[in-house]
Design brief:
It is built from three helices and four strands; from the N terminus they run H-H-H-E-E-E-E.
């Protein structure tokens, strides 16, 4: 009894699904390519009633699909890594910022801050003339 193409569809889809799930691991890449290539060759053979050209095209299509799945999984993993790395750096900076804020609050509660005026005269440095100004020196006691 010859089985039709419809008989093999669920098995082929299951095989393709398992191969697609394993596309993220580089050790299973050859298995994924082989499984999807075999599934594509089988589908091409069944749909064309045994044409060697259609079988070869189906196999190549299966391998290309496997490589596409592998590329998509790899790029998704790279994006997730970069996003996690950036988030970790951001969290570290925020933690350091709040540490400094809390240290300054504790210091500000016990000491006093005074501003001392410092008068800077007109100066000429390396050909640049600086106007006279007053700056304030912050002293915390």
């Amino acid at each position: 009894m010859k089985r039709t193409f419809a008989f093999y569809i669920p098995k082929t889809l299951l095989l393709a699904l398992l191969a697609g799930m394993a596309a993220g691991c580089s050790l299973t890449r050859p298995l994924t390519d082989a499984a999807l290539g075999a599934g594509g060759a089988f589908a091409g053979n069944e749909l064309s009633n045994g044409s060697p050209l259609a079988t070869a095209v189906g196999a190549a299509g299966g391998v290309l699909l496997g490589e596409g799945l592998h590329y998509a999984a790899k790029s998704q993993a790279a994006k997730a890594y970069a996003s996690g790395y950036d988030q970790g750096r951001s969290d570290a900076v925020k933690q350091q910022y709040w540490l400094y804020v809390s240290m300054q609050r504790r210091r500000g509660q016990t000491g006093t801050v005074r501003l001392y005026p410092v008068h800077l005269p007109e100066q000429r440095i390396d050909g640049v003339t600086f106007e006279p100004t007053t700056k304030y020196l912050r002293i915390e006691e």
